[in-house]
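Researcher: I'd like a structural prediction for the single chain below. Treat it as a standalone chain; there are no partners to consider.
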Amino acid sequence: MTKLLTVDGIEIEFEKQDPGHACKWCIYVRLKKNNKEQTLLMVKTDEKPFTRFTHNSGKMVCISDEVLNEIFVNSVNVSSIIENLEKGANEKKN
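Model: Treating it as a single chain, here is the predicted structure.
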């Protein structure tokens, strides 16, 4: 059964592990509620994480570049990714 939580903030971290570790990736889900922060979930896997950015329009759910950009603007250490996305968008226009 899925648990529905309402929080003030959420952080999702994808951490690539050193080759000496028992897994290749750790994924952390941290929540903030009422000025308290807690790691809700840590997942260990050897498979590279897959992410999806979607928008629910009320009629259908679609993959969304706008949602991807909105999330990445609020992320840490992604300035080079944003620059590459902007370069790609400018190249498509030209």
